[in-house]
Amino acid sequence: GAVVSQHPSRVICKSGTSVKIECRSLDFQATTMFWYRQFPKQSLMLMATSNEGSKATYEQGVEKDKFLINHASLTLSTLTVTSAHPEDSSFYICSARVPVSGNTIYFGEGSWLTVV
Amino acid sequence: QQPVQSPQAVILREGEDAVINCSSSKALYSVHWYRQKHGEAPVFLMILLKGGEQKGHEKISASFNEKKQQSSLYLTASQLSYSGTYFCGTEIEGYQKVTFGTGTKLQVIP
Predict the structure, then answer these.
(1) Strand partners, B39
(2) B71-102: per-residue pLDDT in tens?
(3) Do B98 and A105 touch (CB under 8 A)?
(4) What is the least distance, in Å, from the CA of A67 to any CA of chain B?
(5) Which of the 8 DSSP states describes residue B79?
């Protein structure tokens, strides 16, 4: 079964609004989670590393004020896309390391965001 | 820097074998392999840690050459279900971020 759960799987929002995507670790505590973005036919690009109880670490070129990441508990990280624009439409995926499986990283189901 | 995978795409007939390569410009701690079906999240296949180990999972195995900073994924006797895009993910240090490769689209036809 899934070890990392992501919600919603699909969301459509109007340009200028904000949308929140949740990433939960199931049955384990994740002190670190990773957020990726994937455009069609492209690879996964790391956006940021979410750290429980502290600020996220953003990759170069990712706007931290636009993509707000909150990791308030050991089982939940959220990504909020603020003032969304059509170019933000993409597949957003979170991932986390599962302690009992060593260094393995598992992905959530992903969230399709469409900004209209 | 993003790891480079080769080939970019490959078409196989059922039962044929394939090799997918992943090359990094940096020294690696580990290499992860994933398969992604269209519209879905990547699915973990296996992880290899530095030390030049080789792993196998049924008809899918992989090797990791630490000195060459390369990893290869071997698919033998391919099945239709093997179709998808394969990504390698590399770590420079343990328990740090994973950077994904350029991807290899594999299609298995009857």
Answers:
(1) none
(2) 999 999 999 999 999 999 999 876 678 999 99
(3) yes
(4) 18
(5) -
All residues of chain B having their beta carbon less than 8 Å from the beta carbon of residue A44 are 42, 87, 100
Residue B49 to residue A103, Cβ atoms within 8 A: yes
Instruction: Collapse the DSSP code of A84 into the 3-class scheme (helix H, G, I; strand E, B; otherwise coil) and give the result.
Output: coil
**pLDDT per residue of chain A (116 residues) written in tens, 0 to 9:** 668 999 999 999 999 999 999 999 998 888 889 999 999 999 999 999 998 888 999 999 999 999 999 998 999 999 999 999 999 999 999 999 877 666 678 899 999 999 99
Paired with B107 in beta bridges are: B11
* Whole-number Å distance between alpha carbons of A80 and A20: 4
Which are the contacts of A55, defined by CB distance < 8 A and separation ≥ 6? none
CB contacts of B91 in chain A (<8 Å) are: 103
Q: What's residue B20's pLDDT?
A: 98
Distance CA A113, CA B1 (A): 27
- Report how far residue B3's alpha carbon sits from residue A38's, in angstroms, rounded to the nearest whole number: 16
Interchain proximity A109–B99, CB inside 8 Å = no
DSSP A56: P
Distance of CA B98 to the CA centre of its chain: 13
Q: By the 8 A CB rule, do B88 and B73 touch?
A: yes
Residue B91 vs residues A28, A84, B31, B32: alpha-carbon distances, Å: 22, 31, 6, 8
CB B98 within 8 A of CB A46: yes
